[in-house]
Each structure stands twice: as structure tokens, then as C-alpha cells.
Queue: 4 jobs
Job 1
Amino acid sequence: MKDTAFMAEALDLAKRGCGRVSPNPMVGAVLVKNGRVVGRGWHRRFGGPHAEAEAITDAGRRAQGSALYVTMEPCCFHGKTPACTSAVQLAGIRRVVAATLDPNPRVKGRGLRFLRGCGIETSVGLLAGAARQLNEGYFTSLRLHRPFVVLKVAATLDGMVADETGHSKWITGPRARALGSELRLCADAIVVGVNTVIADNPRLTRRVKTPGQYVRVILDSSLATPLNSRLFGEPGLILVFTASQDAAKAERFWAKNVEVKRVGKGADGLLSWSEILGELHRRQVQTVLIEGGATVASSALEADIVDKMYVFQSPKMLGPGKSFTRGISPRPHGKPIELTRVEHRCLGADFLTEGYVHRTH
């Protein structure tokens, strides 16, 4: 029971790296001696000391003979920081409990094997599910060579994300909007369509400034985004995906330090998600948050690229409007788009459904 409590604390520490460490994973570590925590650490920023080194520094001499609870297997290679396995060995730690192996091919079990070779007791698997969920982007990026895709939708009871004119402010209340803003903190990129930019003129910024990478992405087939849009006045990388071959239009975006990337079109006639995700993966983007309107949301669902959904539903009905499912082809009754591991929450008058898109492949 105590082992579980110590690992749970390590997981809580790891969460503090949200929005700060990507493309590294969020990792937390706790050192325990004689049943008491003597050192704590977490990976605070990309390029900075890893969680194990932080915990060892925090413990000082008390690290000798202690047990290390860490949310991911210690690394065994020298990158921007020294190998954590060497730090563990030199500190005299006698036991290492890891929640998961590191899926990075440069590690993948080698870290624990090295420690066992040094006579250090090791085990893996404690709270593994929670540890993998914490770093869904990291695991997906290494396993599928694409980012983990989260779709956020704010809709009415009748499934509308905007009225017939495209107006969508504000469908949900302040508590739902606040939680929606929090989702941006751990995303490496936020994606919207040109229609959202034109209708809402958003900044697409994070509520809290963090040092991690954060790319604002616009899907704009014909480069119709107004150049006086508010998001162009905010610092940070902006990437526009387009099918347009108009070099003069593209040059106007480049003049505003906005990158333009041309991609092909998918089966639905909209921009190719496989090319978009491939380019974002190349840029080490591991978690993508789609906040687009009806066209972008339904296109992502139709392309089967969504891994997780947050559907915020308000107790309102608009009647005819823009539905986030309008671009999805008809599904047989026995083969709907279905969410698993579903959680429900009430946020004031609004209702949140959170879950993972079920896949059989």
C-alpha cells in the first residue's frame, strides 16, 4: 500500500512539468528511506535536470540506501543531461520502482538492466496505466509516429457548435470555458480552421505562459485568413497549412513571420490530416489540441485521427446551425464512433463527456 502511495506522489510531481518539458516526458521521482520521503523531484523544463537528479539533490546524503519511486524508467544515455542511471548508482540507491519502461528506443529496458547489473533491485508496472496516461503524447509519438490528437468541442444539446451565421460565443459557461483553456497548457499545438479565425478572431494563447513549445496552427485551404487577425499580434510560432499555390498570398504571411506549409487534400476534399500530422510530428509536436469549429471537428472524426474527446454540452438548443458531426459519413448502427473509458462531470449548468475514441485496429 505504501508503494502505491509513494508512486502516486511521484505522479503528482510529474504533472508539474505540464507544458514545460515536451518533447521529453513528464517525470516525477520520490526517494524513500525507512518509510519516509527524503527527496522529491520532477523534470521542470526541457534541457533541465531530470526528476531523478532533482530528487537525489533534494535528499543529499540521505539518498544513500534509499528506494527510488519514479514514473518512468531512468534514462541510460548522455543527452542534454547526464544519464540518470549513473546518478542513481553513484547516490547509493538500493531499490528502483518504475511505473513504466521508457519507450524511447535508446532506453526501452536498458536503464533497468543497467541498474540490475549494478546490484540494484528493480521493479516496473506500479500505477503503469496512470503513468502512460500522463504521457499519452510521448507514447503515441514513439509508437505511431504521429501526435496524440485531442478534440475539444463546445456544443448545444442539439449538437450545434455555432448558429447558421457561424457565431459561437459563448455556448458554454465560465467553468467549462476555464477547463477548456486548461487543456491548452499540456498541448504542444492548437489547431483551428480559418472559419473559426474569421468568426471569433481568437488569440489562441495559453492562459498561463510556459516555456514549452506551443504552435498555433490554422487550416486554411485558400489562404483566406485576415492578416489583421489578433493571433498574428501575439508572439510565438504560427503555422498555416494550405492547399493554395498562390505564392504572392503566401509571401504576405511569411512577411508577418507566419510559416506557410502546402499540403494535399484528403478524401473529403479538405486538407490532408496525414500530411498535417506528419509535419507536426517532424517538428516534435506530441500532443495536438483541435479547437476548430464544425468543419475541422467533423473532418478530424471522419479521418479517424482523434484519440481523445472532450465534449462540453450546454443546456441550450439552437435549432438549425453548424453541427460538429455534419461532415461525418453515415455509420451503420453497429459501427458508430464510440468513446470508451468515459468520464462525466457537471460544470455549473454544463455537462462534460470525456473519453477515448474506440478503435479495433
Note: The first strand starts at residue 28 and ends at 33.
Job 2
Amino acid sequence: GIGTPLAITGALFQAFNHAFFKAVLFLAAGIVAYRTGKWKISELGGLAYKMPFTFMATLFAIFALAAIPITSGFASKWLLYEAAIQQKYVFIAPIMLIAGVGAFLYSFRILYGVFLGENRHDSVEEAPKSMIAALFILVLPLIIFVVFPGYMLDLMKPALEAAGIESIAHTKFAIETSLAKYNSIAVLITLMVAMIPALVIYKARKHRVTSFEDNYLAGEPYELHKPAMHAANNYYKPLKKVLLPYLEPGATYYFEKIYNGIKCVSNAVRRIYTGYVQDYAIYVVLFLLFVMGWLIWI
């Protein structure tokens, strides 16, 4: 690892965030299963209208996982990026960024497939108040510490000092390092300003909703095709179409090299272990001669 005070602080901050947003995701999954009785994404959809609080909690958890600025996941990931750049680990920071994008994609597929799209459960209701309260308690720190990241560092300070690790300079709203300064208020304002034109463009577009029944099925039963037409089915097809031509040949090439190497070693070992006692006796004699020669030489 990087091992600097900045990296350790960021890692502890990220561990805190990870515990909370993963707890939210697991609890939300349990709530959906409890209310619908379904576990397959292909059998779900449109629950955002029926379970808005569960949907929003899941959305915030995924934002924290992906380090979107409206959650504290952004602050912890920012510290880790800073630590990598500070130590001139120029390859680690981009890898961390790509890993974050990948985590967002696989998580957003769940959000998209379960809560968005066609409503498939007319009789489903929001989770019980006790479950909603639990979700709110778990989401709240993810919101509080994005606005007040300094409070999180204050909580970690005694543990860091006990381990002999220097605390990072910070205030209630900001964290300062040798490279840059993170100000939560500036980040949130910038994000809100950037969202305004995006919302205007989205609202200006005309959306045509096409029901599943509009598709030509060649006379085959509707239910056979319904799972395949689900929004979450083959969700990564556009990404796969772009990357697969570049990744597949290279991956196959390296896997074949590894396979051939293991095969050669295995064949050599197989030739040694013949199953004949006489051969093993010769191996023992040769080993003893080698040991004796080694002892005489040293």
C-alpha cells in the first residue's frame, strides 16, 4: 500500500463509508424481497413509484459507492486519489478511477432493473416504518459527512494519533493537503450548477414510451420473451460491443500461454512420478548423493 498519513486517513474514511452504503444496499435488497417475494432482477421493475424511500436510499448508497460528490464517498476517494498522486503513483490513480466507474456500472444495473422501467407490481407497498427508519439512519452519515468531512477526521484523530499517524489539516467544511484543498460547499454548489443545464436538456426532450406489447413476437407466448426484454437484461451490451474486440484476443492469448506452461510442468511431473518403486529408489539415492556432494563442497 501507499502507507502515508493521507492514504491511511482516506482508507479509514472509505472503510467507514463502505460499511454504511453496503448495509443500505443489503437492507434495501431485503426490503424488496420482503415486499415482492421476488429475488430475480428480471422479475422486478418500476418499484421507484411504489417504494420511493427505498429507492432514494438505494440511490444514495450507489452514489456513495461510486464516489459521486453528493455523498461522503467522494471525500474519502478524493483523499485516496490525492495520496496516490502525492507519492507519484501515476498508474494507481487511473486504475482506482476505472475501478470506481466499474463499481458504479454494476451497481446501477441493480437500481435500473429493480426500481426503474415498467411497473410490474401493482399491489406492492412501501416498506414498514421500522425498515424505513433503519435505512434513514444508515444513509444519514453518508450525507452528513459530505457536507462536514472535518467531523469525520475529528472522529478518526484519536485512533490515528495513537498509532503515531499525523492528522491532516482540516476545518468543518474543508480538508487541505499539500496538493489541493477539498471544500465541500464549493463542490456541492458546482455540482448543482452543472445539473441545471442537464435537467433543462432532459426536460426539453420528448420521450415516447413503447409498451412491450408493441413488439412483434411471431406468435410466441408473451411470457417467454418478457424476461429477455427486461431493462436489466444484457445491460452492458453497448460497453461489451466496444471493448470485446480489443480484450478478447489479448485475454485468450495470455490464458493459452498460462495453460500451455502449466501443461508442460504437469507433463514433466507426470514423467517423474512413474509409479514404480525402483524409480523412486533411484531418486532417493540421487538425492542423497546430491546432499553429500553439497556438504563436501561447502
Note: The chain has a mean pLDDT of 80.
Job 3
Amino acid sequence: MNIRRVIYNFILVLVSFILQTTVFRALDFGDIAPNLMIIVVASTGFIKGDRSGLVIGFFSGLLIDIFFGTYIGFFALIYMYIGFIVGKFHEIFFSQSIAIPIVFITIADFLFGFICYILMFLFRNKFNIGYYMMSNIIPEMVYTALIAIFFYPVILHMNNRLDEREERNAKKFV
């Protein structure tokens, strides 16, 4: 892995975290904000594969755990699995189209919300899943999908530029 790619991924995760916790909290609708970290994790997994999705997911979740989590590793594990699962579709689907990645980002956000519901509420005997779906999971999923329409092409463009630069550098040494 190239040092530029590591720096790019670090900056991408950090900027997304800062935007998610500041700007988009101010632009929330009914206390619902988009999940930019899911967009970053799912996009990276979809563009670069399961290993990259797993690593970016782990560090994104760890960042959320450090600042907002009750337990260190809870969100890291969830984001890591989501990045890995979405990354498995890297070989099957074409990442240059915008429709399929947006669908995967939407599904990933739904899975994230559902897993969080199960682990945070269902085990504490709070069985009102219909209310949680209609008030949290589905609105966040829609808001995240709308933001992903604008955010995914930026991530894709930056990844393509890094790939081109890595290819040019590799050709210099051959």
C-alpha cells in the first residue's frame, strides 16, 4: 500500500467524522443526520475490496467508539463487518456506476441501524422495532442515500486519481 493512499484514507475518515459530528448534526431533520462513516466504509469497500473495507471500517468505528461509544470496539466491529461484506461485492459489480454503490450504501446503513437496534435495545427487552424503524433507521437510511449521491463520486474520483498516480509511479520503476 502506498503512503499516499494511507494518508488519503486517514484524511477521508477524519474529515468525514468531523463533518458527521459537526456540520451534519446542525443540518439534521427531526434529530436524524446522515451517516457519513457508513458512506466512507461502504464506498471504500466497494471500490477497493474487502480488505480495505475491513481496515477503513475498523478505524472509522474505533474513532466513533473513542469519542461517543460506551464500549471500545462496539462500533469498530460493526463497521468492520459492514466494510468487509460490502467489499466482497468489489469483484462482482462495476464501481464506476453510481446506482449500485448507492444501493449498497443504503443497505449497509439499514444493516448498521438494525444491528445497533438488536445489540443496544432488543437485548434490554425494548421490543418496539416498528417505532425504531420509522423514527430512526429508515429516515437515516434515506438521508444517507441522498448525501451519498454527492459524496460517492468524490470518493470515487479521488480513488481513481490515486490509482492513476500509483500506476504511473509503478511504470517508472519497470
Note: The first helix runs from residue 3 to 26.
Job 4
Amino acid sequence: MLVFGIHCHQPVGNFDYVFEEAYEKAYKPFIDFFYKHEDFKFSAHFSGILFEWFLKNKKDFIEKLADMVQRNQLEVIGGGYYEPILASISKEDRILQIEKLNNFCENILGKSPKGIWLTERIWDTSVLQTIIELSMDYIIIDDYHIVSAGYPFEEGFYFTEDEGKKVNLVPIDKRLRYKIPFDDPENVVAFIKSQKTSIIIDDGEKFGIWPYTYKTVYEERWLERFYELLKKENIETKTISEALKTSSKKLVYPASVSYEEMGHWALNYKDAIDYQEAKSKCDKFEKFIKGGIWKNFFTKYPESNYMHKRMLEVSRKSHNKDNILKAQCNDAYWHGIFGGIYFPHLRREIWNNIIKSDFDNATFEIVKEDIDFDGKLEVKLKNKGFIVVASEDGIVKEVSTKEIGNLNVCLSRYKEFYHFINEHQEKEEGKTIHELKKDISKYKDMIAYDEKTRFFSYDDMMWDLIDIKEDKIAFQKAKNKKVIKLQDDKFILEYNLEDATPIDINLGIHSLNVEEYEIDANHIKFEAFEIGEINLNFSKNLKLKVYPIKTVSQSEKDFDVITQGICISFLAGGELFVEISC
């Protein structure tokens, strides 16, 4: 028996042409093929983001899905509507996310989902409790959840319990993840035939949009040959719920992990290199070698942590939750084989939704708490036009406006394990994206690293917080003074410094092709589609050094060189006012 399924998703804020290409090369041809073969039963998860795009742009596709659901060929799998990591949001928001997708499926496709697609298969017992409370019948996990908890993996279904309430578990077979659609259909079907129950639910994008797969799957007829061989060998296909009804199940208590590759990506670069080396030497004991957990990304990338904690802070105060639910879309908070956090347009969309939701709350606000859980107090001021957040040691972490959003959607330049791949590696067709070899050598001269996190503004002083008002935050260090002022239409930094001090201002401008330059000026202006026009006025002429912040990050195809922002760096002494307006 084969239990086959696909998971399809595009991030909030992704470019429309990416949706269109994924639809034309993967989603549409896959569904069109099996629409003609009603005997092939399968399950599918689509994120609410995709469903909304289909409704707006491809209504006939939605109608086809609904038809397949009604004729019991297709089972729709539920999950979080905007594809959040369920373990990273509040219980209240988890329920809203899951119920929103359930309601959509029932209203548009005619049936409510019985099971959960666990985003990135991030298992956590707090999530388990929520899913059981919502009376969902099953959760999709990986075989790795089972073996890493100390159990021998056997194909088929499992179940677990929490406080005496049980839920079924559907473990994806990693071997099939790596075989489909990369191995010959004959080999794949032979493997399936050798097992009593084979379970594979994997990315729908691998059927046409991953590197080289459109050629393999459709032009070389991989999918057609796979289907014909299943029929020839009399291998029955079932939806998840159908298979669960007739299958025995074993009790397990899964480990708090994700799929195996995620544990590698979540590590810092040194540990990630050691992890790879250890795995290569210990095949027999591989299941005992564990990487990190998904939440490590919050400590690996402080920008991710700050964005996440601001999302949580705003969510606690929000009554209209839709914008904040969008801000929980997972992709921009982490990085693995895809761009993720390295894609500025994804981070910006998360921030846009956080800021919209924040301004929907109280117009004026003074918050004094450790917002980002870094062990230091933050002060947040908000008026009808601006939000500013500064830490107790004087770092300006955020400047946001109601019209534009966060002005500092930047990312620092981090060491990544793949920066240290020295040997020349050729790309190989017919391999899964985890196995494609890439050549970092041609990017070596572009790689640089930052010592400090590129928040909005940073100077070399360790300030003491001395005063907070509704429109200003004051700091002092010996005879040096710094004041942050907030007006309805501008943000002002005031300095009085004994000695010349280096100051950086980082702006989230990604679309301008800026090379490093220096200018003597008391004014500088940038115009970019992502933030419109932004003006920086200085109270005196300064020698300004302007340069792009560029990163080198891996993607499913190769490496990307991406402008993460622009830095304006200068030395200042004595009295200085910096006025920023949009």
C-alpha cells in the first residue's frame, strides 16, 4: 500500500512571478495528470497563502481540487493557515491558524481536514496538546522523530498520547523523500513493493520547480511511468484517513526535533561543520547524532529573534489578528537550503504585517520591558506616525513608520558552514536539492562578516538609560549625552560627545545598486521602491561613508549575493543632530 501526498506552499510576500512559475511548472501539471487518473488516491496540503492566490488567479484550479475532494480521490490536509511554526506562537494563535484553514477547506472544497501538516515538522508537546484539543485525527511527522527518540523505525503508522488523549502519527519515510522523483521509477516502485506500507508526503514543488525536476517529471515522463508501474504491480494507493482506518498502529513518544536536515541547519557554523564530519564517520550510530532545534535560529540570527519577539508582543495586544497571523509565516525566520531569512522581501512583508497590527492597537504607547529576551531592558515609544525601540545601552533597534513600516529590514553578514566548503563541486542533475554540489570558490571575495548586529543605529558607547518621556529617551555616559526624540513626522538623534565617536545607521534598502562611496555633506537622500523616499539631515557637514551590506547565502540552485541594506557610517564629536524623515 502506498500513502502518497504533497505539501505546497509559498511564503507571504513572495513575488507573484514565483507563484505563477510554481503553478505552471509544478502544481498545475501534477494535479492535471492525476485528475485524469481517478484511481490514484492521494492527500495534499496547500497553505492558505496559496489557496488565496488560487482563488484570485486560478479559480478553475480550485474547482478541480474541489471535484477531486468530492469524488474521494483527494484528501486535504490541514495545518496553520499562514504556515507558521506552531511551536513558535501562542496557543490562542495556533488555534486561530488551524481553524482558519479548516474553515476555508470546508467552505471552498467541501470537507474539513482531519489531520495536520506540521510546518517544517517541528514537533513540540505544547503543539500536541493544541492539536488534540481541536480533535484532529492525525499529525504528519518524519521517521526521524521516531528513531531519534530511541525507537527502531518500522514502516506504517504510529500514535502517541498526552494526558491520556491520543492522536495518530503519520511518519514520512526519508528514503522515499530522497528517491522521489530522483531515482528511476522502476527502483522506486520496487522499494514500495518491498514494504507493507509506504508513506511519502513531500514538497509539491519537487514535481517541477526544483532544479532539473520539470525535465525529469514531465518531459521525461517520470510521473507517468511511476503511475503506470504502480498499476502494473497492483500497488494500492490510499488517502491518509483511509489507510489509518485499516492499519495497525504502535505507541511512541516522538523526540522534540524536526526532519534530520533541519537539525544541521539550526547549528552555528562551527558546530554544523563538526556535525557533518561526525555523521560521515559514524553511519552505524547516525541516529544518535543530533543537531540543533528549530528555535536555535532565534539565537543564531538576532534579527530573526527580534522580529519574532516583536510579533509576539504585538500579538498579545491585538484584537484584529489577521495581520499578525500573516506575520507568523515561517519562511523569513530561518535559513536552510532555501533563502529564507536572507530574502529581504520576505522579512519586509513580515515586518509590514507586524507594524500594521501594532498601529491598529493603541496610538500612543510607552513600553519598558525586555522585548526581545536578550537580558536587557528595551524602551518602545509609539505615536501616531512613528515607533522607536531602543535598548538600555543605547542601541536603536527599530525605527518604523505607519506608512512605510520598519526602516531597518537589514540582515548582518554571518558565518555559514557552507562558506567553508573548499573543494570545487559540480552541479549534478538527477539529485535532490540536498545532494546538489555547489562551488563556493567564485564567491569567496564577496564574503565578509559583521562583528555587531546591524540594528538601526549603533555607536561605540555603552550608554546608561537616564530618562524616559512619551516623546524621548535620554542616555548618558560620563559627560557624553544622547537623546532619541520622536515626533509625528520625524525621528531625531541628538548627540553631545566629548570625543569623535563612530556611528552607523543601517537602512533596509535592497533595490538600489549602490557601490561604496564617501561624501562630505549635511544631507543625504535615498529613493527606493521598498521604502519610498527617506531623508537624513545632519546639523553639520560630515564625511559620510555609504556602502551596501551584501551577503552570500546558499539556495536550492547555487549561491545568492543579496544586498541586505545600506550603511551610512561617520565619525561625530561635539554637538550633532541627525533628523530622519520619510
Note: The CA atoms of residues 182 and 431 lie 6 Å apart.
